[in-house]
Amino acid sequence: MNRTRALVLATSAAFGLTTVAACGGTAPQQAAPPPAPQQQTDPNQVKLTATTVGQLGQVVTDASGMTLYRYDGDSANPPASNCDGPCSQMWPPALATSSTATLDGIDQSAVGVILRKDGTKQITINGWAVYRFIKDAAPGDAKGQGAQQKWYAVTPQGKKAAGAPATGGGAPASSAKKETPTTSIDPGAGGYGY
Predict the structure, then answer these.
(1) pLDDT tens digits for 101-146?
(2) Is 135 left (phi over 0), alpha (psi -120 to 50) or beta?
(3) Contacts of 115 (CB under 8 A, 6+ apart)
(4) Which residues pair with 101 in a beta bridge?
């Protein structure tokens, strides 16, 4: 009788351990997968924004809110910059400092890059190379508008802005937007976008 009782106890204990293991009570817990690495933004990323500047209407500004210009001495077809040397000191080219660009209110198919004579890459809008003006001191300034009857603030479509020079007061035209597209440069096409 003692032997039967010991066999029943041993069988019950084995059954209990099997049941607990099958239910996951003693099975090792799987660790949660590590969190996905967060994508870091490029601090040199180009940012172009359609901004209302004074009476010029919507023009393109850079990451600092400075007005960008196009030069009638350049060519859009084929895209080419003809502002070098002393000209580029007064009108610094807007350079592609990154392989990505954030565009707000500007069609990504309109934005590209060209290779300058000095080997740097300059941003274009609809083929027109774009520049800053050294005398613009604050976001919203457009003191270069109409200079020499060849320099004009550039619109998001690459056209000349119409209107008198502006000083201060620029605000992003699309400030109500919550998201802006980020595009990558396509070295084969020579521009930002797809």
Answers:
(1) 899 999 999 999 999 999 999 999 999 999 999 999 999 999 999 9
(2) alpha
(3) 121, 122
(4) 46, 183
Residue 21: exposure state from Cβ atoms within 10 A (0-12, 13-18, ≥19): exposed
Q: Which two tokens stand for residue 155?
A: 């619109």
146 three-class SS: coil
Rounded distance, CA 180 to CA 104, Å?
5
For 138-194, what is each residue's pLDDT tens digit?
Answer: 999 999 999 999 999 999 999 999 987 755 544 444 433 334 445 544 433 355 442
CA neighbor of 126 nearest in space, from 172, 62, 60, 180: 60
d(CA 70, CA 41): 29
Q: How far apart are CA 6 and CA 10, in angstroms?
A: 6
pTM: 0.69
Type of residue at 6: A
Length reported for the chain: 194
